[in-house]
Amino acid sequence: MSRVSKPYEIVERALELSTTDGLVVIADEHSSANLRWAGNALTTNGVTRGRTLTVIATVDGAKGTASGVVSRSAVTADDLEPLVRAAEATARGAGPAEDAQPLVSGVPSSPDFTDAPAETGSEVFADFAPALGDAFARARSGGRELYGFANHELTSTYLGTSTGLRLRHDQPTGTLELNAKSPDRTRSAWAGRSTRDFKDVDPAALDVELAQRLRWAERRIDLPAGRYETLLPPTAVADLLIYQLWSSTARDAVEGRTVFSRPGGGTRLGETLAPLPLTLRSDPHAPGLESAPFVIAHSSGDSGSVFDNGLPLAPTDWVRDGKLERLTTTRHTAALTGLPLAPGIDNLVLDGGGERSLEEMVAATTGRALLLTCLWYIREVDPATLLLTGLTRDGVYLVEDGQVVGEVNNFRFNESPVDLLSRASEAGRTEKTLPREWGDWFTRAAMPALRVPDFNMSSVSQGV
């Protein structure tokens, strides 16, 4: 191993090699552990380790500042100089960067910047794996088959800049997806959880939930397309509102391209989006959903800028008490639009003041309603209204006067999350959830179930 191998040493050496006006170095140390199972038996497990180094060089010119970004994996000390030179050459060959800003400075260094990276391993499943084995036994005796996977990742990010920043963040990310199937495979149910350490995940409780859903599916009821009162569980609400957050960039709104654009010019900031007292917020220090407290940008785009690396993040309300409060901005787009600085944060919470669980909301239903499990294959149809389409999956159930009476067919839906907020008649208790559709990119969410009186099931789907 080269004498320069520790992450902070890699960062420091890359900064020493710089010959341009500015340099940002991001070292990401990755480790992961996973379990997979099928038919009530473990099938595979594994542990991985890796390193990715991103170098961002900036060059000041008469017409502005250019940037060059190069990322490579498995970097050692011997790879550093070629990597830095490649980033510098890219910057010198590029035109002025539209999002150019002075590199961030003046942020206190992380006290653990020189410490070894945090790592995960099979020990993260020390309590979970035996409990999962017990769940297999119960499922087997109950005539169910369990399939799924558990994955835990830990990324230690070291960020250093030529302006003196030395920042460090450790990000654990755990996900569990569990499917239960009837022996003839005609019935299926899904449950998912997001966790930091698998200490708050109970396979037995999930198996009980899935067993009940399989029992509901013993009776099949076919329904036509149409508008139905619908109970959206937290996972479905998360998938819809994550997409809304990704679509809430200030520049696009100011330029008239999104649902947050005001007809005739400007944005809808300050407008009431929901009659319920809903607050949609992000907070890097939210308990159980902690995320990086500073900007980590490996590339520039509509919602992030490499020049903002290291910028401190603060709790941000995107919607407050039903009113649109903030749109996402970088330093560049904040200056361009005249709107407050509001960088993106890697978690999302919806608070609605409700106290009922999803089960209590089902019990309180009068008349007919649909209870969803989750959504998938979500795609944008119209950015001007944020109309989305997608499919229901792994169980849609019919509720009649507070009781689930059977499973119905799947549907394709056409809805805008912004419009849904304006029509929601009840928000339940906020709880941590795993987004089913966006769980590969965004896992830190807490949402309530929402009751929507007229959710648009636009067509019947044969999806499962």
Feature tags:
single chain, 38% strand, globular
Question: Which SSEs are present, and which pair or pack?
Answer:
Layout: H1 7-16, E1 22-38, E2 41-61, E3 64-73, H2 77-93, H3 128-141, E4 145-161, E5 166-181, E6 188-195, H4 203-216, E7 220-221, E8 226-232, H5 234-246, H6 250-254, E9 279-282, E10 316-320, E11 323-324, H7 331-337, E12 348-351, H8 358-363, E13 368-382, E14 387-400, E15 403-408, E16 410-415, H9 417-423, E17 426-427, E18 431-433, E19 445-447, E20 450-461
Parallel strand pairs: 7-15, 8-13, 12-19
Antiparallel strand pairs: 1-2, 1-4, 2-3, 4-5, 5-6, 8-20, 9-10, 9-12, 10-11, 13-14, 14-15, 14-16, 16-20, 17-20, 18-19
Describe this structure in words.
By secondary structure, this protein is of the alpha+beta class. It is 20% helix and 38% strand.
Short description:
The chain has 464 residues and is of the alpha+beta class.
